[in-house]
Sequence to fold (566 residues):
Amino acid sequence: MVLRSKGTLISAGVLLVTIVSVTFLLNTGSHKIDMEMSQQDTLRMKPQEHYFERNLSHYNPSEVLLPYTENTPDTVHVLWCGLKWFEFKHFLSLLSIMKVQQPSKVIIHYWDDNKVLRDRNDYNLWYSQLLDEYYNIVTRSRGPTAPDCENNTIMMENVLDILKNGGIYVNDTIVLTHHLHHLRKLPLSVGVTNKNVPVTFKTLAYLVAKKGEATSEKLQSLRGDDFSSSCAVSDSLEKTNTLPSVLPTCILIQRNIIPAKIMETKDALSQVVRLIYYGSTKVKLPDWSMDDPIPNIGHMVLLGGYEMNLLSYLSIRSMIHCVGAEAMYIYIDVEPKGQWYEKLKAEEPRAVFVYHEWPGTVFGHPISDGSHASDLMRFDLLYRFGGIYVDWDAVMLRPLGHLKGYGFVTNFDWPDWHPPYPDVINNGVSAGKKGSEFLRKSLMKFRSYNPKGDWYYMGLMMPYKLYEQYPELVKIERKLQVICYMLKCHPVFLPGYHNEKIHHLNGASFDWKEVYAFHWTQPSPPELLNMTLLQTAKGMFADVGRYVLSCDRKKTLASLVGSHQL
Fold:
């Protein structure tokens, strides 16, 4: 469904925002700046450990389990209004509540005609992920028809109505960096995004109130000097690589961010987001070890009966001679035909044709599509045996070298056909260690396999979602394969690769000998289907084909020994 809400995707750059906290004490009949936040809990940094990291891993029950007389409920309320996607920024807000505040319950309030929207390609699945992972997040309808979500007065009335029996309200784009339990001891505490204007729904960051304390009159009486700056933050977090020793209580995320943008960036905001999402401020890099490298064997799936053509012959030959594979296993349920099959049998003893039945089901779901079967088989074969998987229309140009130290190696596809996905993954050429955790998680995703679904999801989109969640398990090597579509190649290691008009014939030139593989998804180049044409044709595709024919396994292995890569 198309996004229709106003302002959901806000322009890049977090605007300068100040979040401030105010405490309203009825027992004194006056306003008082809240200075009760525990200094020992919030301010100082231990060596090698920021207090924010410490607070996520060490929680003091006495801060949460308050006496009955201090009766602000330990329930957080979030109000969802507007026809919009539940994006990563909303996910971060709820995740920070669950990890930092650790409430007894979170209630997401919504209206029946304004439920969370799903984009047509199922990228923004953050909402369902939260509901699956946390047993104490519940949803509650406020009625069949939503009010005007842009009306400050109406929306504030809803917040106050939700808190009439007490509790905590947090805006759905606010990320907490410190819990609010100390404020539960007070009658009313308010965090806002602008201390220089009266409190409105748009400026409200959070509200903590005992029963009967959250009223419009009390909120509207608050003015400038009634607010504290103890909870201030700005876009300066994106402009420094050093986490301040004192973080604000909360951060307003005014633009959507995505995991790929914060995995390796070093600014302070990315560190905070990584800690909330991944559990560590450290840059997320894939694990690497050559103690148990990716086996030097190849896999290819050719089910359904197949007359082998020159390109598939070149693909198999490239694994044996250009990579130096110990064996190339080709999985068939019907014996192939044709001269190139006969040539392989006669000349390449390392080309092993293995009988493999069609995978009829996966987790009880019937498989009827060939691409789905191929996706499942490549994950399964690499998980059980390890090695390098290649599609029949891809050729390898050189060994993996240091890449064999990663648990799983793949790369992005070039098309931008699946918004709002930032990228998708193409496993037409991929490699993995036996028992790779990324491959295991990929196989487990087939529990929710839909036989009638788009084949793109399980093959391209699902792996990308796993990459976002577990970047330490997969190496994205942008030179692993150059994908060529309609005889135009789109190297993803060059700028603008999502632009279909930019390709190797139009500004995206590159040295093909620097890449590991070529993959012609559609159609196959004529010069790679006819030996006579291959021997006489000019151009990059013919050069690649002739190079594969010139590869010699002995020379490849000798070069590996010389470079200490074997």
About this structure: The two ends are 51 Å apart (CA to CA).
